[in-house]
Design brief:
By secondary structure, the chain is α/β, with parallel strands linked by helices. The chain has a single domain, classed as 3-Layer(aba) Sandwich (Rossmann fold). The chain is built from 15 helices and 8 strands. The chain has an 8-stranded mixed sheet. Helix 2 crosses helix 3 and helix 7 packs across helix 8. The longest helix is centred in the last third of the chain and has 15 residues. The two termini are about 25 Å apart.
């Protein structure tokens, strides 16, 4: 256990969330993405706590030591936002800055959009805000664009993709974390496309040596979290895209009006792909109070782990201006 940090279970929104917390002051929630844990914020928690914040990082629904409902429809965006709303209340607070990475960024954007009375500011890492399409649900949009090999469809294959990742948990995590990082070869195959007859891991690379930001001890922590409940819960997040589209109809055209920050690695495939490369320049239209877009050269998708100093500097600069301790 890191000095000054505590871990406990909190009842929220009908489930139990295991949280890591440190510090006192205004509340900052850190929402991790796929396939990670609260541990992915290990470099941010103490830095933000030292700056005068009460920092809370949950293992999100389906992950680690938090509850992992079996049902696919227990992982809709309203459930995930509801978890964060209930967590704020369970902590005895009424206001928070919400920070998210990857899927956690989607939760953070949605929480800010749905509950501006609670979430005073928002910082998102790696995944820009995606306005809701008025025309069609996400999977239909991908099919119409000829992207039926996009990885979302592969992750929708219940049981198959779980078995792929659970066959060798350490290897799967090592491969995914390395291949989507800024340390992977520049000529690697696109990872977000899964050709027919292949698995997601087929295009990943088993590194001969881990990059400097990732250790075997880190891999062991993540692997232990996934051995507890498996990968079904994390993949269920992906199985709700169309259900989420229907649920968010009341927010069609709604903007995120709070002060906002976006951080990403310049080599992150999420923002260099055909979809992402259009999203980042358009971010200010849907997020009118976007304070800064920070693109870190040479970094990949796991930005808060790969470049903790740069991420911490950007977060602290943003918080000092718009959510001061």
């Amino acid at each position: 256990m890191v000095e000054g940090q505590t871990h406990r279970d909190v009842a929220a929104n009908g489930i139990s969330l295991r949280i890591t917390e440190q510090g006192s002051g205004p509340l900052v929630l850190l929402c991790h993405g796929w396939p990670e844990l609260a541990y992915s914020w290990r470099h941010q928690i103490p830095a933000l706590a030292r700056a005068g914040y009460h920092v809370v990082a949950p293992d999100m629904r389906g992950y680690g030591d938090s509850s992992a409902p079996h049902e696919v429809d227990a992982y809709t965006i309203t459930d995930l936002v509801g978890d964060m709303v209930a967590l704020v209340a369970a902590l005895g607070e009424t206001r928070a800055c919400i920070v998210g990475h990857d899927w956690g960024a989607a939760v953070a954007w949605s929480a800010a959009q749905m509950r501006p009375d609670i979430f005073a500011s928002v910082a998102a890492l790696s995944v820009p805000f995606a306005p809701r399409s008025a025309a069609a649900a996400p999977l239909a949009v991908l099919r119409a664009a000829g992207l039926e090999n996009f990885y979302w469809f592969h992750f929708d294959r219940e049981g198959i993709v779980e078995a792929e990742f659970e066959r060798d948990v350490e290897s799967a995590l090592r491969r995914v974390l390395f291949t989507l990082s800024g340390d992977a070869p520049t000529d690697r195959l696109p990872l977000l496309i899964v050709p027919p007859g292949h698995g997601f891991l087929d295009r990943t690379i088993e590194p001969a040596v881990l990059p400097r930001w990732l250790t075997e001890a880190d891999i062991s922590v993540f692997a232990a979290g996934f051995r507890k409940n498996g990968f079904r819960g994390p993949f269920n997040w992906y199985r709700n895209f169309d259900r989420n589209w229907k649920a968010t109809a009341p927010f069609q055209g709604a903007k995120v009006t709070q002060p906002a920050l976006f951080i990403a690695g310049a080599r992150d495939e999420v923002i260099t792909s055909a979809i992402g490369v259009r999203s980042v320049p358009m971010l200010g239209k849907s997020v009118p109070n976007l304070r800064e877009t920070v693109l870190i050269p040479g970094a990949g998708h796991w930005i808060q782990q790969e470049r903790p100093l740069e991420v911490n500097d950007a977060l602290l600069r943003f918080l000092a201006a718009d959510y001061p301790a």
